[in-house]
């Protein structure tokens, strides 16, 4: 299985400051169709996952533009340009290139 | 509005069985791959099965292969997960997820609220 490794696992951030989460895969996520199936999800306390980013850098409709995704191959990053209170929660990367799809361990974002 | 509503979660003894359902609305169900993922209490997320839109082929990770069976009824817009030989480690919230139009379950775009399965004597 493809192992997804996130860092850090805990991220205390001051309101209005940037935040960055790293996600590394144990093998390249470039699929045979040329796409890289790397997603980012946000899970607020007590809620189900919400997709923020798909195919590395495509932001979902309704997702604030302070969220951005980047990376290639095995190394990916989710950035929040200015953290707001509503961004508190756990963030997961997920690969959809090789079955079984797998998630990172999650990064808990909290306000300092 | 796209909606996924899971049901069927319950307390079950080890070795027992349970059937989860996911009622879909707000989109053309037959055109989308679907799946189930789970989250053990306080833990991360794990996929347990996905099913294609076209041929209805289902896929499982080794952790549930041979014990879980995923099916879909396109006439009723329903996804069903039959879980047999349940173990304590199957205890989790089970989420139904909709595959996107372009990437299927490789990039699931909508998730239900989940249903809790507890395996304990």
Report on this model:
The complex is a heterodimer of chains A (112) and B (121). Chain A is mostly beta strands. Helices cover 0% and strands 48% of the residues of chain A. Chain A contains no helices and 11 strands. Chain A has strands spanning 4-7, 10-13, 19-25, 38-43, 50-54, 58-59, 67-72, 75-80, 89-95, 102-103, 107-111. In chain A, strands 2, 4, 5, 6, 9, 10 and 11 form a 7-stranded mixed β-sheet that branches. Chain A has a 4-stranded antiparallel β-sheet with strand order 1-3-8-7, with no helix packed on it. Chain A is globular and about 40 Å long. The mean pLDDT of chain A is 98. Chain B has 121 residues and is mostly beta strands. Helices cover 0% and strands 46% of the residues of chain B. Chain B has strands at 3-7, 11-12, 18-25, 34-39, 45-51, 58-59, 68-73, 78-83, 92-98, 110-111, 115-119. In chain B, strands 2, 4, 5, 6, 9, 10 and 11 form a 7-stranded mixed β-sheet that branches. Chain B has a 4-stranded antiparallel β-sheet with strand order 1-3-8-7, with no helix packed on it. The termini of chain B are far apart. Chain A binds chain B through residues 1, 31, 35, 37, 39, 41, 48-51, 54-55, 60, 92, 94, 96-97, 99-106, and chain B through 44-47, 50, 59-61, 95, 100, 103, 105-114.
Observed structural traits:
heterodimer, A: 112 residues, mainly beta, four-stranded antiparallel sheet, 11 strands, globular, B: 121 residues, seven-stranded mixed sheet, 0% helix, 46% strand
Summarize the structure.
With 112 residues, chain A is mainly β. In chain A, 0% of the residues lie in helices and 48% in strands.
């Amino acid at each position: 299985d493809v192992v997804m490794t996130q860092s850090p696992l805990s991220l205390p951030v001051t309101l209005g400051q940037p935040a960055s989460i790293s996600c590394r895969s144990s093998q390249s996520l470039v699929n045979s169709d040329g796409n890289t199936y790397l997603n980012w999800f946000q899970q607020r306390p007590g809620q189900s996952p919400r997709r923020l980013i798909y195919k590395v850098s495509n932001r979902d409709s309704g997702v604030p533009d302070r969220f951005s995704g980047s990376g290639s191959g095995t190394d990916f990053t989710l950035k929040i340009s200015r953290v707001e209170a509503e961004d508190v929660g756990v963030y997961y990367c997920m690969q959809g290139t090789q079955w079984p799809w797998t998630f990172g361990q999650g990064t808990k974002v909290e306000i300092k | 509005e796209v909606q996924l509503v899971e049901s069927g979660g319950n307390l079950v003894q080890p070795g027992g069985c349970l059937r989860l359902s996911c009622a879909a609305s707000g989109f053309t169900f037959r055109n989308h791959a679907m799946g189930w993922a789970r989250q053990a209490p306080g833990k991360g997320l794990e996929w347990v099965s996905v099913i294609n839109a076209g041929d209805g082929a289902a896929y499982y990770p080794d952790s549930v292969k041979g014990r879980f069976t995923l099916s879909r009824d396109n006439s009723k817009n329903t996804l069903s997960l039959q879980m047999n030989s349940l173990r304590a480690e199957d205890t989790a919230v089970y989420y139904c997820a909709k595959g996107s139009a372009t990437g299927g379950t490789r990039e699931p775009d909508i998730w239900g609220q989940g249903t809790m399965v507890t395996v304990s004597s």
